[in-house]
Amino acid sequence: MKVKIYQINTDRDSERLKFCNLETTHNIQKDKKINASLYDKVLDADVDETNLEDIYYRFNTSHHPLFRGHSLSVSDVVVKDDGAFFCDSIGFKKINFDESQAHIPDNTFKIVYVEPHKPAYATEIGSDYKSLSRAVKGLIEPIYDTDDNTVYVGNEESKLIGMPGNRHMSNGHGIIAGPFLVIGDDGEEFRSLTDEEINKYVEKFSQPEDISDEEVQNDTGYSIFGFTPNM
């Protein structure tokens, strides 16, 4: 299920609403509305959890490779298919929340994220090395396929540590194991994908592939090029 999480950015929080419950927030703001412009989007991802209690538990324990925020707390907003929900002192309350007013931090890249056994989707990732590494669950490795303007970023040790097969590369060039992301490449450093590139790769990897562990273990068919991360 697609889930988005929003958290208040303290730099814009002049009324100190971060970590306030819904009643206190309404009393301070008077108009009974949640001011979405105070919030940053810290997750836009496909998760296995379907109910709010499980989502709360997930994001207070194991988190998610793309998560850029703190543990899910009071005043955070979770958006899923059936609406937006305010994390209150006890449980969640459904609210009106204008996502178009919320912010995406400047230090992010637009990417396409591809996980084993799931359709690809567009999202954002932190532009630092740590965020890239967390997304692929280990040491990052650029994998060049057929497009000079984009690059896949996977886990350097994915096959050694037994990650499941994810997708076949183009032209019979092998298998990518474990989660990977597609990101723009300007020749010197990474960049956000364009809208056209996002549409291209969401479509390209829209269908999950069934790749056996034996096929992954036997695969040695792609070339890796050196990369120095922009710290």
Tell me about this structure.
This protein has 231 residues and is an alpha+beta fold. The protein has 5 helices and 13 strands. Strands 6, 7, 8, 9, 12 and 13 form a 6-stranded antiparallel beta sheet that branches. The longest helix has 10 residues.
Amount of helix: 10-25%
Q: Write the element-wise H/E pattern from the N-terminal end onward.
A: EHEHEEEEEHEEEEEEHH
Largest beta-sheet characterization: 6 strands, antiparallel
Low-confidence stretches: 221-227
The fraction of residues in strands falls at: 25-35%
Mean pLDDT across residues: 92
Q: How many β-strand stretches?
A: 13
Q: Briefly note the structural class of the backbone.
A: alpha+beta
Number of helices: 5
The rough form would be described as: elongated
Radius of gyration: 19 Å
Distance between the termini: 32 Å
Give a nutshell description of this structure.
This protein is 17% helix and 29% strand. The protein has helices at 22-29, 52-58, 129-136, 195-204, 213-218; strands at residues 2-8, 39-46, 77-80, 83-87, 92-95, 108-114, 121-126, 140-143, 150-155, 165-168, 175-177, 180-185, 190-191.
Task: Summarize the helices and strands and which ones pair or pack.
Blueprint: E1 2-8, H1 22-29, E2 39-46, H2 52-58, E3 77-80, E4 83-87, E5 92-95, E6 108-114, E7 121-126, H3 129-136, E8 140-143, E9 150-155, E10 165-168, E11 175-177, E12 180-185, E13 190-191, H4 195-204, H5 213-218
Antiparallel strand pairs: 1-2, 1-3, 3-4, 4-5, 6-7, 6-12, 8-9, 9-12, 10-11, 12-13
